[in-house]
Design a protein that fits this description.
The chain is of the alpha+beta class and 176 residues long. The protein contains 8 helices and 4 strands; from the N terminus they run H-H-H-H-H-H-E-H-E-E-E-H.
């Protein structure tokens, strides 16, 4: 996995630079998400790795799924095909989204709680994270009743464990 990300990084950076230069981040984001989902399908992977399928046929297959590919997108996919990197599309799409979020000063934060949050609680958490991190925050919520109470917040490299279970575990470690 780490190797795939390492190989995908320069491709993601290049396509991000191109999209930023053209002022077309959203369109690239949409196209990359669709072809990445397509490239994750086992049936498509079998076709993309088949040596009897030409690079152009592979790109045409992905183009048919997306619908309308821009000339730049088609060229990018051909570059990936020629270098046997089409299977890296999911990693490239993920890295592209990270670069886009960073450029747009956006961050997705995951909040795990024992019970569902109210809209007011979500708003307060998002505002506090925006104040602390200086970025626009998009919250994703997950309920895990094993936490007993409190919350765990993950935003980029920041992890805040304010759960009752986490506090009990820290107390148990301190006692030992």
């Amino acid at each position: 996995m780490a190797e795939a990300i390492t190989i995908a990084r320069p491709y993601a950076a290049a396509v991000f630079a191109l999209a930023q230069e053209k002022g077309d981040l959203q369109a690239w984001s949409n196209q990359l998400q669709v072809v990445a989902q397509c490239a994750e399908a086992a049936e498509v992977q079998a076709i993309l790795t088949n040596p009897s399928v030409s690079d152009e046929q592979a790109v045409n297959l992905l183009g048919d799924v997306v619908g309308e590919l821009s000339a730049d997108a088609r060229n990018f996919l051909m570059l990936l095909a020629e270098n046997n990197r089409l299977l890296l599309l999911p990693e490239i799409a993920t890295l592209f989204e990270q670069l886009r979020a960073e450029a747009e000063q956006m961050l997705t934060a995951e909040v795990v709680t024992a019970r569902a949050l109210t809209d007011e609680q979500k708003t307060k958490i998002a505002a506090a994270l925006k104040n602390r991190l200086g970025k626009e925050i998009t919250l994703t919520e997950q309920v895990d009743e094993s936490l007993l109470g409190g919350a765990i917040i993950r935003a980029g490299d920041l992890v805040i464990d304010g759960s009752a279970l986490g506090k009990l575990n820290r107390l148990a470690s301190a006692i030992r």
